[in-house]
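Lab notebook, design round three. We kept the backbone fixed and only want residue identities now. Task for the bench partner: fill in a sequence for the structure below.
Input structure tokens:
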């Protein structure tokens, strides 16, 4: 029998959308300010809103659309899975442009990106370690788990650079060999 999942907790879609709109709109204002600063013409301080103000609107609309659709689809479906960011990404990506092919293309691209990111764990830091396991014990386990006998590695890979593994016992037993074992490696070279 499958383990029972926790009961779904509804999300406030409008509140989350307003918060996301304010945050991404502020980021858009910062980017718009940078764009205004880097223009060749001296537009003035209001150029942040008049000349490059579309950046603020696009950032704010994308963030608000993503968060609203993400929360609303979770509430409607009563599931919190990877389809919610995928739908939110589609609507956020489709905000950017005006033509139908571009709307579908940008929407699908952002949907795939955000859906895959959420499906794979939603972290950029990678695999998280078990906080209950001691670091030394974890590394010792990894060393023992991955260790292979040296003869197996030499047989599979060879010694490299044209050298082959020798039967050292046969070389030592040879009566014509008068080389001490400590000089054997330099003699074989």
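Proposed sequence:
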């Amino acid at each position: 029998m499958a383990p029972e999942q926790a009961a779904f907790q509804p999300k406030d879609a409008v509140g989350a959308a307003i918060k996301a709109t304010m945050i991404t709109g502020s980021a858009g204002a910062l980017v718009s300010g940078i764009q205004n600063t880097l223009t060749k013409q001296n537009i003035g301080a209001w150029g942040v809103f008049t000349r490059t103000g579309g950046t603020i609107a696009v950032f704010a609309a994308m963030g608000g659309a993503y968060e609203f659709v993400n929360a609303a689809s979770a509430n409607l479906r009563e599931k919190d899975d990877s389809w919610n960011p995928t739908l939110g990404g589609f609507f956020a990506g489709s905000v950017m442009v005006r033509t139908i092919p571009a709307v579908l293309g940008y929407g699908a691209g952002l949907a795939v990106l955000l859906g895959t990111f959420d499906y794979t764990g939603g972290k950029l830091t990678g695999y998280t370690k078990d906080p209950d396991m001691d670091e030394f014990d974890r590394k010792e386990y990894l060393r023992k788990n991955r260790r292979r006998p040296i003869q197996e590695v030499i047989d599979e890979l060879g010694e490299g650079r044209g050298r082959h593994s020798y039967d050292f016992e046969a070389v030592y037993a040879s009566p014509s060999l008068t080389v001490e074992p400590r000089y054997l490696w330099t003699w074989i070279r």
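Keep this in mind before ordering anything: The mean pLDDT is 81.
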